[in-house]
Design goal:
The protein has 331 residues and is of the alpha/beta class. The termini are far apart. The chain contains nine helices and 15 strands. The protein binds NADP nicotinamide-adenine-dinucleotide phosphate.
Length: 331
Amino acid sequence: MKLNWGVLGAAKIAVEKVIPAMSGSEDYQVLGIASRNLEKAKAAAVKSGIQKSYGSYEELIADPDIHIVYNPLPNHLHTEYTLKCIEAGKHVLCEKPVALSSADVERLIAARDKHGVKVGEAFMVRTHPQWLRTRELVQQGALGRLHLIQGAFSYFNADPGNIRNIEAYGGGAMWDIGCYPVNTSRFVTGEEPEKVLALIRFDKDFGTDTLASVIMQFPSCQAVFSVSTQLVPYQRMHFLGEKKELEVMIPFNAPKDKETSIRINSGDILQQNIETLSFNECDQYRIQADEFTRAVREGGEVPVPLEDAVANTKVLEAVFRSAREGNWVSL
Ligand SMILES: NC(=O)c1ccc[n+]([C@@H]2O[C@H](COP(=O)([O-])OP(=O)(O)OC[C@H]3O[C@@H](n4cnc5c(N)ncnc54)[C@H](OP(=O)(O)O)[C@@H]3O)[C@@H](O)[C@H]2O)c1
């Protein structure tokens, strides 16, 4: 029997990336989509070839035919609606950040355990082969001892109506994209930061953070990164060991229809002798959905469990506190 997914909200990420990635599986299907507006839900259902549409999120959550819910609502609604789904006995894959406080992630863990369902945070990058290989190379010592991680992630979006620029919706650079360098640094090192220091610029109209620079002290290395919602689109992650440097070329928005690559440089500053490892075309949203569904069916762990989300969220909380207080914050 196919497992049935339902989607809360006709969000851009759902309609453009996640739902198309899930088509054609023998194991599962997207059966329904809900919107605050029934016409919008119907239009999204027609566009995406989905059978059922609902004029409220509650109707989808109450539908016994739906087994797994994908929650791509604005950030401030993640915890509230994920909780409603859990309480209705649904498994939930929730978009990042799954909550805007670690206390809220703990509430989700308690509800998940009470109701015996699977809940995961949609950090799809963690399922992409380029990140699995990066982690393997670093942890095997292929770069020599790792001492430094450098990262950057930016785009330009100054639309006052966009959820990323609305403070009350959990907008801002750190919650939207700063969570990725934090998450991938933790993933690759297998460590948690001991302390963080952050400098943040807030937009005077939006009230959201539009530029953030962060230093994280890990037990074995330092990680520094900057993120911005008002800069030229750019994304890169570098891992520097004593012998080699590894660069993930499209770390976060890896395209599904092009090869991706990581480049390893043994210290050639002219960059003439660089080893390139290529990865076949693959859709990280598809791998994420496949793995999440398998965990539900077979009872294993979801790709990014809530225990990981607690740790990631604590780092983001510390980043904001550090910027506010102008000091290092220990974790
Ligand atoms: N993993 C990734 O690669 C990735 C990429 C982009 C975004 N995301 C995450 O996905 C989530 C959605 O991002 P998005 O760019 O797709 O956003 P979006 O297009 O603005 O979609 C958000 C949806 O939430 C619903 N909604 C409910 N209450 C709302 C309110 N008060 N204001 C606005 N929308 C409301 C709307 O659906 P209805 O009108 O149909 O009810 C809307 O379509 C965010 O949490 C973001 O962090 C993840």
